[in-house]
Structure formats: structure tokens, C-alpha cells
Amino acid sequence: MTASGCRDYTHLLGAFSDGELEPEKQLEVESHVSYCEGCRERVQLDEALRQSLKHTVKQAAPEALRARMAAAMRAELERGSAREDQHRKGGTAWRTIVPLATAAAFALAWGAMSRGPIARSTAGDSVHAGLGDDLLADLVAEHSRPLPPERTDPQGVKDLGQYVGVPVRPSNLAQRRANVHFVGGRVLPVHQERAAMLQYTVMQGSETRRVSVFIFDPRRIQVNDGDLTPHAVGTAQVLVGHSNGYSVAVTQNDGVGYALATDMDEDDTAAMAVASGAQ
Q1: How many CB atoms lie within 10 A of CB 271?
Q2: N or C terminus of the chain: which is more exposed, having fewer CB within 10 Å?
Q3: What is the pLDDT of residues 75-134, one digit of tens each?
């Protein structure tokens, strides 16, 4: 994509990531991001920066520090947009600026918190310890404002497993519940990892309910279950709760993690979670 073509969209990427654009403009920017590698990586890095700092700062930073860091991030992103063409012409990609800004912000946050050194994980460790609140928040946000699925063919959706590191079986839920219809799926970034998001509709009487399922590798993405309650479905154990008016459920089966958000009650959501992971 040319710099002049991208210039029409760069100032919209922040609002696009936050879901604040009008639906028509949101779809237009999404279409551009889908084939423009530079803008797509910018959105992914911006999201990684926001999620990382949100999780780090919200735990213990004073209100004044959070406000200063938020202002600094906004200013850095604005300066990055203004300098984008200059870096392209000079051979230095804009994406090298964002990680440096992220590193500086982390240093500021952790230094101000005086919470000790940042723990370093090995390649085999989960890189998302304590990220579960972000995972569930992302799931509920996607469920409440769903984008059109990227793939609607079940076989094509199965292929998403190569991107998330665990099997994706879109037909499980529909095969086990006669009133469930599979809509489609897509891959979504979760911090520095990926999860598959599957969408379903469920007929309950005369009403149509929606179900969104995140499928993820629980070795790489951990769920904070502090606000969830254990719920038994047969011999399976599910964690259930509510978030922003939606029922949520989390379970694992055969090394695969499942997190659901639905418009239904906790019992139905828990049952759907078990059906999603059934072999």
C-alpha cells in the first residue's frame, strides 16, 4: 500500500481499534487493514501496547501516573502518525517507534510503582499470566459489537487452528444442539497471542440468541478466574459469571481453552461451553 493511500486511514486506526467509528466507516477501515500489511501491523502493535499498559498500570499505579501515561501514549501515537511518511522515505519503518515507546512506558510505570523488577519468562512459560481479565473483556466487547466473520465454511474455520496453536472445531456446538446455527469465525489478537472467535445463533422459542466462543491455547493465555464461580455440567467443570450484562463461561478440554459470552443464562452458557469442547 502506498503512503498516500494509507494516509487516508492512519488517523482512523485508533478509533477503529476502539470500535468508535460509524459501522460503515468501521467496515471500510477493516477492509483496508485486511490487505494493508503496514496498517494491520500498526493496529496489532497499538492493541498490544494498550493491553499491556492497561494491565500493568491499572493494578497499582496512582491516578495521576495513569493520566500522565495515557497522555504520553496519545502524544506518541500522534507524533508517530505525523512522522510516518518521513520514516517511510528514510527507510525506517514506523513500527520501530512503537516498541520503543512501549518499553519506555513500562520502565516509567514499574519504576513509579516501586513494585520490584519485571519478571522475565522463558520461552516455555505462559507470557500472559494474569491476562484473563483482558481476555474476558475482549470477548465480551467482541460479542457485544460483532464484526462479520472472515470465514463461514466450517472446513475453512478449522484451518484457523494453525494460527492459534490448538484445534478449532466449529461444528461441535451445532452438532450437539439442534437449535444452534454456526455463523462463522475469525482470528483475533489477544495481547501478543491469537485466539479463534466462533459465532453462533441459538433459537430459544421465538427469540434468537447469540453465542461467541474464544478458542485459545491455555498454556499461552491464562484466564483470571477470581470473579467466576465453579459450575458442574455432568462430570465437566465450568467457571461461570457475568460481565456487562452477558453470561460468560470458561472451561478446558484436552489442552484447549474455551471462553464463551452469550445472551443467555448461566446454565445454558455453561452447557454450551461443555458442548464446544466435546470430542
Answers
A1: 19
A2: C
A3: 555 555 555 555 444 544 444 444 445 545 544 444 444 333 333 334 344 443 333 446
pLDDT in tens, 179-211: 889 999 999 888 778 899 999 999 888 889 999
The answer to whether 189 and 44 are in contact (CB under 8 A) is: yes
84-113 core/surface letters (b: 16 or more CB in 10 A; e: else): beebeeeeeebeebbeebbeebbebbbebe
Position 21 pLDDT exceeds 50: yes
The full set of domain ranges for the chain reads: 3-113, 132-277
Question: 132-277: what fold?
Answer: Protein Transport Mog1p; Chain A (3.40.1000)
Query: Does the predicted TM-score (pTM) go above 0.70?
Result: no
Distances (CA, A) of 173 to 68, 132, 148, 200, 239: 46, 23, 19, 9, 18
Q: What DSSP string describes 61-74?
A: --HHHHHHHHHHHH
Cell of 30: 477493516
Locus of grid cell 471500510: 28
Q: Indicate if the pLDDT at residue 139 is higher than 70.
A: yes
Residue 112, pLDDT score: 44
Edge-to-edge strands, sheet with 246-253: 180-190, 193-204, 207-216, 256-262, 246-253, 236-243, 229-233
